[in-house]
Amino acid sequence: VIASSFSILAYHNVRHIVRRQLPIVRRKLDKQITAMVLMRVIVFVCLLLPYITYRIYAVNFPTSRSMPMAYAISRLIQAIITSIYIINFAINFYIFIIFSPRFRRQVKLVLIKKCCRRWKYWCCSINNRIEPENDIEPRNSQMESEENI
Questions:
Q1: How far apart are alpha carbons 34 and 11 in whole angstroms?
Q2: What is the pLDDT of residues 73-97, one digit of tens each?
Q3: How many Å apart are CA 35 and CA 96, to the nearest integer?
Q4: pTM of structure
Q5: Which of 82, 103, 126, 128 could anchor a disulfide with 96, C-beta 3.0 to 4.6 Å?
Q6: How far apart are CA 8 and CA 38, in angstroms?
Q7: Domain assignment of residue 77, yes or no
Q8: Number of domains in the chain
Q9: Considering the domain boundaries, does residue 134 fall inside one?
Q10: CA distances, 107 to each of 6, 63, 100, 116, 126 (Å)
Q11: How far apart are CA 50 and CA 56, in angstroms?
Q12: What is the rounded distance in angstroms from the CA atom of residue 121 to the CA atom of residue 107?
């Protein structure tokens, strides 16, 4: 309820911003953020609603362990709905990637340009120094083995 009310307030605020004289870039960014908030709230409600519904049902109609099949089915439904509820915490990143070009640019900057450079430095650093080869013993042992033949 709180998230929905604040998203509606944000949407209402952005509609008023369009009427004010603000730079076009600022209006565009405000619209983008509002779209992201609205989509986040819609996904939040859609993923939370089955969990709330199931919890209300489970409290009002508890399943006893004396009926193993009904109990197993209720536990399966509970596991599936809880998994859907937990997805709610991880889905923000994907929602923002889908609905915000600015967020996509920032993710690309961070992941590709900064993290890949660090990874290449750590894993793929090539030693470009020239070092003398002090490998005299194997040559002598090789000569000795050829003399023995």
A1: 6
A2: 999 999 999 999 999 888 888 888 8
A3: 10
A4: 0.57
A5: 103
A6: 8
A7: yes
A8: 1
A9: no
A10: 26, 46, 11, 12, 28
A11: 10
A12: 20
